[in-house]
Amino acid sequence: MSQRPPTDSLQREADRVSPIDRRLFGVTEGVRRYLGVTIGLGFASALAVIAGAVVLAGIVNRVFLEGVGPGDLSGTLVVLALIYVARGVFEWARSVAAHRSAADVKRTLRDQVMRAVLAQTARGRSAGSGDLALIASSGIDALDAYLARYLPQLVLGALIPLLAIIWVVTVDPLAAVIIIITVPLIPVFMMLIGNYSDRATRARWSTILRLGDALVETLRGLLTLEVYRSGEGRLDRIRKLSDEYRKQTMATLRIAFLSAFVLELVATMSVAVIAVAVGLRVVNGNLDFEPAFGVLILAPEVYAPLRKAGSEFHAAMDGMEAARSAFDVLETPLPVTTATDRPSAPVPGAPLVSFSSVTYRYPSLGENEGAVVLDDVDLHVTRGERLAVVGPSGAGKSTLLRLILGFDHPGDGSIEIEGVPLGSLDAATWRSRIGWVQQEPFLVAGTILSNVRLGAAGSSNDEIATALELVGAEDLIPRLAEVIGERGAGLSHGERRMVTLARAVVRAPDVLLLDEPTAGIDSVTQLRIAASFERIAADRTVLTIAHQRVLVDLADRVVGVDHGRIVAPTARELR
User: Fold this and answer.
1) Over the stretch 461-513, which tens digit does the pLDDT of each residue have?
2) How far apart are CA 312 and CA 155, in angstroms?
3) What are phi and psi of 558, to 5 degrees?
4) DSSP at 541
5) What CATH number does the domain located at 353-567 have?
6) Are 559 and 389 in contact (CB under 8 A)?
C-alpha cells in the first residue's frame, strides 16, 4: 500500500474535530444521494416554515384587527393547512431517507471493516476481539443518531436561519440584524462545548474498548484462570475499568446537560430580545402588526434546528467515535510484502516448503514483546513427504504452520514454496492448496453439512459424504442435516475433530497441515484417525504437529522443535 501524503493525515485530524466526518460520505454513494435529498427537503421545509409564519400572521391580523369573518378566510385557512401538511411530508420523507441512508452506511461500513480485518489478519496483523465486537455492533449502530438525527438538524440549522434572514430583512431590518448577531452564538458555544465533549467521549470510548477486550480475554481464559486461581486479579481489572467507564459516562452526561442549558439560554434570550425590539416598535407605531407578528412566529423556528442539533450532538458522539475507530481499521496500512508484479514460476526439483535461517519474534504481546519464538530455523519439506514435528508445548511448532500459511511473517530469513518466496505468491491462491486442521476445532452454529462445506463452498453432498468416509467418520454421514451449536455444541470432542478433518480434506488439497489433530480425544477416535491416515495422506504432503505416538509412527520423517530451534527428537517424544 502506498504511503499516504501528509495532507491525508491533516485531513483525518480535521475530520476528528469537525462535526461532520467527510469520510462517511465516501462509504457508499447512498450517503451522497441522501445528502442531496436532505438539502432539497430541508430547503423545502424551510420555505414551508417561512410561508406558514407569513400566512398565519396575515390570518391573525385580518381576524383581530380588520374584523374579517371566518367564512372569508376559508381559502387562506386551506392554504395554511396545506403548508403544514407539506411541511410534515417533507419532514417524514427526510426521516425515511435518513434512516435508509444510515442502514446502508452501517451495512457497508461493517462489511468493509470485516474485510479489512481479514486482510490484516491474513498479512500478520490482528486486532482486539473486544474492540472489533464493539465497533462492528453497538458502535456502528450508534451512527443512527448521527446520520438520521444530528446531520439533518445541521442542514436545517443552516438553511432556515439563512432563508428567514432574507425574508425578515425585507420587513424588519432591525430584527434581521439581531438574528444575524445571535444565531452564530449557538454554533460557537456548540464548538466550545463540543471540543470538550469530544475529548471526554474519546476517553470513554477508549475505556469501553479496553473493557471489552478485558472481558473477552477473561472469558477465553476462564479454565486457565480457575486452574491457577488467578481470577481475582482479572476481576479487579474489570472492576477498575467499569468504574472508570462509569465516571467518564457521568462526566459526559454533565457536559450534555451543561450544553443543553447553554443552548436553551442563548436561544431563549435571543427570541426575547427580538420580541422586545419588535413589541416596542409596534407600540410606538414604527412597525405594522402583521410583519411584526410574522417575525415573532418565525423567531423560535430560526433557533429550533440549532437547538435540536445541539441536543442530538451528544447522542451522535458515540457513533462518530465508532466511525473514527472503524476508519482507523480501514486506513491501517497492510504490512509490506515482497510481492512482485508477476508471479514467479516454481523451480523444478525445489522442496515444496523451505525455511532458510528463519527467525520469528512476537511483534507485540505485552511482557513477551520481542521474545524469540523461532530461532534460525532451517527446514525443508519435499513434495509427498509425511513430516511429523514434535516438541514441548510453546516450543514454536504451531508458529511453523502459521508462517507456512502466511498469517505471520519471519523477521529474518526466508520461506520459499517450490523455490518461490512465499511473499511473492498470492496468499489466497497458495492457501487454496492447503487443508488446515487447527489445534482447537473451529465450528459454527449450523448443520454438520454446512461446517464441512466451509472447507469448499461449492462441494456437493456426495463429496462431503466421501470426505467424512475418508477420515473414518462414516457414522456422521446420516447426521449431516443435524444442527449443532456454537463451537460444535452437541458433538463430542472427537466428532468435532472428525468434522474439521473432513473440512480440510473435502477441498482436495495438495498440502495438509495438521496441528495436533488427535489432542484431547479418546483412544478409540485416535485409532480411527490413524487408520484413515494412509487414505488422507495419499498423494499429498502432510506436516503434522503431534504429541501422540500413534501419528508419529505414520510419518516418513520426524523433527523436533525446542526453544525455537530444530533439534533431533528425544526418545521420550518418540515413545
Assistant:
1) 888 888 888 888 888 888 888 888 777 788 888 888 888 888 888 888 888 88
2) 13
3) -125, 130
4) E
5) 3.40.50.300
6) yes
